[in-house]
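Re: [ENG-882] Designed sequences occasionally contain unexpected residues at chain ends

Forwarding the minimal case from QA. Structure tokens:
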């Protein structure tokens, strides 16, 4: 084990809180055990270790992230994501397979949604020529988290959104029965509606989407088009 990871594991373990661990695990549907360390404290504990040991050289960052990912408690994966932010300027297109590995390992919305818009989104914005090598493959996979990644990588693009690509991706996945796919479709449309509400409104009205996706998509713009809670069921039918 890398010395930095060992020190972090010991520091976190010394501050575990079993009373908080149970409800934290329950919130995540008991997919992972928890130490019971909430986000502000976890980040402070990580800061403590960085001050004592310093952040390792960037050549070790994948080793550190993988070792943290292998530890059972979810706080270690959360810490790994915090650490990745500190190495962000070093993460580039050569790391896509590594990020893909993280997405499909110990998968849940908290880790996937931290990886995809921030890291993959930046990479694909700088290297759009790589999109065709990954996005169709992820869509065609049986892995809902890769499919969610395909939907969400443009989440923060705003005016740089590739509308044609976005709507093609949604068109490939709109019939999915998976909650996390339907929710992601609604989320990316809702976010893009902040930039281009008319386009999103027109798309929702004229394309087949799950009711959940439609509700999420127009959540913040429905009033612009005279839709209230009484009318929303008719609009979404």
């Amino acid at each position: 084990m890398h010395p930095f990871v060992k020190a972090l594991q010991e520091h976190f373990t010394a501050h575990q809180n079993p009373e908080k661990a149970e409800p934290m695990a329950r919130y995540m549907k008991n997919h992972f055990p928890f130490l019971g360390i909430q986000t502000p404290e976890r980040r402070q504990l990580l800061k403590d270790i960085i001050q004592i040991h310093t952040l390792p050289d960037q050549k070790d960052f994948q080793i550190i992230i993988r070792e943290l990912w292998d530890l059972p408690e979810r706080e270690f994966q959360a810490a790994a994501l915090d650490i990745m932010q500190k190495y962000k300027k070093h993460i580039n297109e050569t790391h896509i397979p590594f990020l893909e590995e993280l997405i499909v390992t110990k998968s849940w919305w908290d880790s996937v949604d931290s990886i995809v818009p921030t890291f993959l989104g930046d990479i694909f914005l700088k290297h759009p020529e790589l999109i065709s090598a990954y996005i169709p493959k992820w869509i065609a996979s049986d892995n809902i988290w890769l499919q969610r990644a395909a939907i969400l990588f443009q989440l923060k693009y705003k005016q740089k959104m590739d509308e044609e690509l976005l709507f093609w991706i949604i068109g490939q996945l709109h019939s999915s029965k998976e909650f996390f796919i339907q929710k992601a479709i609604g989320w990316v449309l809702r976010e893009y509606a902040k930039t281009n509400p008319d386009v999103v409104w027109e798309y929702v009205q004229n394309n087949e989407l799950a009711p959940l996706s439609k509700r999420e998509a127009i959540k913040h713009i429905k009033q612009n088009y005279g839709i209230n809670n009484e009318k929303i069921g008719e609009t979404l039918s």
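QA comment: On inspection the terminal residues look reasonable. The CA atoms of residues 24 and 36 lie 7 Å apart. Proposing we downgrade this to a documentation issue.
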